[in-house]
Design goal:
75% of the residues lie in helices and 0% in strands. It has 287 residues and is mainly alpha-helical. The longest helix has 21 residues, at 47-67. It is globular, with a radius of gyration of 19 Å. The termini are far apart.
């Protein structure tokens, strides 16, 4: 509640400023501070506080974007907020709602990317995401990653829709660009995406082998302290190769590891534990 009240007060403060130019300047000035807020949130060890706080921060971010609609930093952060909220707290209990949140996050991410005139022109005219992503440099890593993450998460929940599968090439193009620019971004996030992507490919295409290699890269980058990667390893790799022992061992390892084994990952590791329990409860559906 306190976070929501603060959000409303900040938004209200800007609404009192009559000059649109000054309002935009004010929003742009405080936008970078939200990156520090996000980093602090990941260090929390209470996922319930994050669950209650993210929605009010989404309201604030969208309100600020009303004053500065082309602020890339705010657009990418809004995409990240939607993705994080859906993945951590909605997906396992209400997948249909999660799909809507992921799409909304993707759309904010695409808006951030399209601030770049070259990217926008290529996507709008040629629909070629690979070519468009190639024009972006390191500055656009968050925009690329969170757009791809939201899009991929939506697709993962939409596998029964054959039309949705047409989007996979666009998602891969965005994530390949992130991996080329910085494969270590967000705890090896690009490698984690490809680990799950390859897990869905058949053996003749080298799916499981490539997936294992990508998971190994994530474990190396994070020192094995990013428990969400291990949760996905159990869910997307162990189940595909039908290794029940590996699945059980990985789940137990997650549950027995302190969430703050890396203080910077505390809240994400806490969420990973919740997902591990959820996956364990679904075990009969996997094997």
């Amino acid at each position: 509640m306190k976070i929501l009240i603060n959000s409303i007060l900040i938004a209200g403060m800007f609404s009192l400023v009559s000059c649109a130019t000054f309002r935009t300047m004010g929003v742009n000035a405080i936008a970078p501070s939200f990156n520090e807020i996000i980093e602090s949130a990941y260090k929390m060890n209470d996922s319930l506080i994050l669950k209650e706080g993210i929605p009010s921060n989404i309201i604030l971010l969208e309100g600020l974007l009303g004053f500065s609609p082309d602020n890339r930093n705010l657009l990418a952060l809004t995409a990240q907020a939607y993705c994080s909220y859906a993945l951590g707290f909605i997906e396992d209990t209400d997948p249909e709602r999660a799909k809507k949140l992921y799409l909304r996050g993707r759309d904010f991410g695409l808006r951030a990317l399209k601030v770049n005139k070259k990217f926008r022109k290529i996507v709008n005219k040629e629909k070629d995401f690979k070519k468009a992503a190639a024009v972006l440099d390191e500055e656009y890593i968050p925009d690329l990653f969170w757009t791809g993450f939201c899009w991929a998460s939506w697709l993962n929940l939409s596998k029964k829709d054959p039309v949705a599968l047409y989007d996979i090439s666009n998602i891969v193009a965005l994530m390949e660009r992130v991996k080329d620019l910085d494969g270590k971004y967000f705890n090896g996030g690009p490698h984690l995406f490809f680990a799950m992507y390859y897990s869905g490919l058949p053996v003749p295409m080298g799916g499981p082998e490539k997936a294992q290699a990508e998971f190994d890269k994530v474990f190396e980058i994070t020192g094995g302290k990013f428990l969400m990667a291990k949760a996905f390893y159990a869910r997307f790799y162990a189940t595909i190769i039908k290794d029940e022992e590996l699945f059980d061992k990985t789940i137990e390892e997650i549950l027995n590891t302190p969430s703050d084994i890396d203080p910077n990952l505390a809240v994400m590791n806490e969420i990973a534990k919740t997902k591990a329990r959820h996956f364990r409860n679904q075990r009969m559906d996997f094997f």
